[in-house]
Write a structure and sequence with these properties.
Structural class: alpha/beta
Radius of gyration: 18 Å
Helix content: 25-40%
Oligomer: single chain
Order of helices and strands: EEEHEEHEHHHEHEEE
Distance between the termini: 23 Å
Number of helices: 6
Number of strands: 10
Strand content: 25-35%
Largest sheet: 6 strands, mixed
Length: about 230
């Protein structure tokens, strides 16, 4: 594996169901994502985009093929190994999934504590830095009910970034945002790629952000049908 490639998959296949109901949903997926890159994965509903995300994000066991993440083989990895690898990843979803009874700061602190045992004061410092990155230093003590939709999503981004992950997996993170908020989220992820080497794989139907991607992959019926590289 090229050390510059944080993701390297060879002939990744996947099936759902058992027996006569078993159906193949991914076919020979080959991906090589350089460290620090920003890649968009597009395709119609049911094409397999989220399945790719969950497999590479160690949220689902790899069934077939060679799948390496940060140099670690995921095919055949134990649950303990997958759990350890997940601690080095960040996840952002369309629904921000914030705890409504917790402040922005407390929501991000949870992102620290699920990864490792960290003293409360250090967790708060890390959360403050992450919230500053997304421009919410003045909203740290706000409850989600007092934040706009774009601000809530930026809290979710801060929670994903708080542990300085090797890679961020994002599933439709801009779908519910206005154009400016969507651009802010994508530009932040791009900047972190340049500054920290954070790699992003983003699933989207949002045409507004495509010009910011390093590459665009199109998935149809479980197969990668086009790869468009941007300079």
């Amino acid at each position: 594996m090229d050390r510059n490639m944080i993701v390297d998959t060879r002939n990744m296949n996947h099936w759902f169901g058992t027996g006569e109901a078993r159906k193949q949903v991914l076919f020979d997926i080959n991906l090589a994502l350089p460290r620090g890159s920003f890649t968009v994965l597009m395709g119609p509903s049911g094409s397999g985009k989220t399945t790719v995300l969950t497999l590479l994000g160690c949220l689902r066991a790899v069934q077939d093929g060679t799948v390496k993440l940060t140099g670690h083989e995921l095919h055949g990895a134990s649950e303990a190994e997958l759990t350890r690898l997940r601690q080095r990843l960040g996840f952002i979803f369309q629904s921000h999934n914030l705890h409504e009874s917790l402040t922005a700061m407390q929501n991000v602190v949870m992102g620290v504590q699920v990864r490792a045992r960290v003293p409360d004061d250090l967790a708060r410092k890390a959360a403050a830095v992450a919230l500053g990155l997304v421009g919410l230093s003045d909203r740290m003590d706000y409850l989600p009910a007092n934040l706009s939709g774009g601000q809530k999503q930026r809290v979710a981004v801060a929670r994903a970034l708080v542990g300085n992950p090797d890679m961020v997996f994002a599933d439709e993170p801009t779908a519910a945002l206005d154009k400016d908020s969507a651009a802010d989220v994508v530009d932040l992820l791009k900047r972190l790629g340049a500054e920290r080497g954070t790699t992003t794989l983003l699933v989207t139907h949002d045409n507004r952000i495509l010009d910011r991607a390093d590459r665009i992959l199109t998935l149809e019926d479980g197969k990668i049908v086009t790869v468009q590289e941007h300079a």
